[in-house]
């Protein structure tokens, strides 16, 4: 698999949309993350582990966190288990090298049923480069499902700036009722953001929308369709329970990423920040 987060193009988008700072070390994209008291830490998202000693001295970083994409890796003995994952530690992957019939067959029966229902009801899918309607229905989604999204400019910049980022809408009776933003990078397509209207939920538009993008990814020669993240298996009361139930209806293989690791550069500040988090109830 290939990760779009490890591209200069992605870093440029995030810098423009969120004001984030990035560096490139030995071909690996490294993000500078702010901390209280003017401190910072370094973060590698789905990239290889590289020596960040010089960059840490330059930036004054307290520690570095590595969220390596592979399940097995010979981590340096200096690395310690991270106290948290910044990205989802579990995801769902569909094998796009299978035929469409095989992909449908490995879905849950309810997933296939909802796709057929949306088709029967006359839901249609269109591609767009305007995120305005996406943002409108996203606000309904975030209020309904109680989570936070980004501002409209963030999604528009993603469509405008990220090579391979595409926006699709599901329409019913001439009205947009669902939207999906996916990225296509080398052999990997990733379902990044989704939204659905409070109206016409009975026509199951998000299922047909997802199936359409899965087929698009296959047509583009992608081998993997990554649902980006799901709740860990066995997790009770997880914030992603609802979206995980939706994603699991499409089948696929559950993949757990390698344990996140950290390298401490400034022990005093590292443990002080950990202590502050613990007092605030942010650490177990």
Mind explaining what this structure looks like?
The protein is α+β, with helices and mostly antiparallel strands. The protein has 2 domains: 4-87 and 258-279, 3-Layer(aba) Sandwich (Aminopeptidase); 90-256, Aminopeptidase. It has 9 helices and 13 strands. The protein has helices spanning 8-18, 53-59, 100-105, 109-121, 132-145, 152-161, 205-219, 241-248, 267-279, and strands at residues 21-25, 28-34, 40-45, 63-67, 80-81, 90-95, 124-128, 165-172, 175-185, 188-196, 224-226, 253-256, 261-264. A 7-stranded mixed β-sheet has the order 7-8-9-10-11-6-12, sandwiched between helices. β2 and β3 form a beta hairpin. α1 (8-18) packs antiparallel against α6 (152-161) and α4 crosses α7. The two termini are 33 Å apart. The model has no long low-confidence stretch (mean pLDDT 93).
Q: Can you lay out the helices and strands and say which pair or pack?
A:
Layout: H1 8-18, E1 21-25, E2 28-34, E3 40-45, H2 53-59, E4 63-67, E5 80-81, E6 90-95, H3 100-105, H4 109-121, E7 124-128, H5 132-145, H6 152-161, E8 165-172, E9 175-185, E10 188-196, H7 205-219, E11 224-226, H8 241-248, E12 253-256, E13 261-264, H9 267-279
Parallel strand pairs: 3-4, 10-11
Antiparallel strand pairs: 1-2, 2-3, 4-13, 5-13, 6-11, 6-12, 7-8, 8-9, 9-10
């Amino acid at each position: 698999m290939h990760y779009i987060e490890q591209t200069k193009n992605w870093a440029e988008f995030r810098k423009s949309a969120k004001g984030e700072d990035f560096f490139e070390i030995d071909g690996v994209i490294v993000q500078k993350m702010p901390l209280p008291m003017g401190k910072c830490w370094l973060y590698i998202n789905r990239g290889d582990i590289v020596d960040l000693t010089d960059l840490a001295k330059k930036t004054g970083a307290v520690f570095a966190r590595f969220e390596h994409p592979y399940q097995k890796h010979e981590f340096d003995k200096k690395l310690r288990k991270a106290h948290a994952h910044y990205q989802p530690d579990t995801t769902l992957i569909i094998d796009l090298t299978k035929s469409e019939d095989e992909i449908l067959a490995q879905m849950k029966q309810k997933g296939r049923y909802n796709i057929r229902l949306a088709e029967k009801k006359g839901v249609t899918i269109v591609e767009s480069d305007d995120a305005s309607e996406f943002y409108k229905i996203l606000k309904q989604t975030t209020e309904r499902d109680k989570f936070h999204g980004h501002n409209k400019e963030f999604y528009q910049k993603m469509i405008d700036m990220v090579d391979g980022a595409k926006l699709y809408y599901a329409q019913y009776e001439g009205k947009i009722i669902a939207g999906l933003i996916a990225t296509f990078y080398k052999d990997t397509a990733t379902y990044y953001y989704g939204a659905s209207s409070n109206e016409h939920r009975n026509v199951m538009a998000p299922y047909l929308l997802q199936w359409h993008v899965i087929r698009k990814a296959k047509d583009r020669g992608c081998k993997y369709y990554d649902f980006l993240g799901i709740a860990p298996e066995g997790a009770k009361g997880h914030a992603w329970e609802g979206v995980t139930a939706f994603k699991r209806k499409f089948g696929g293989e559950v993949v757990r990423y390698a344990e996140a690791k950290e390298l401490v550069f400034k022990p005093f500040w590292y443990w002080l920040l950990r202590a502050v988090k613990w007092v605030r109830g942010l650490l177990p």
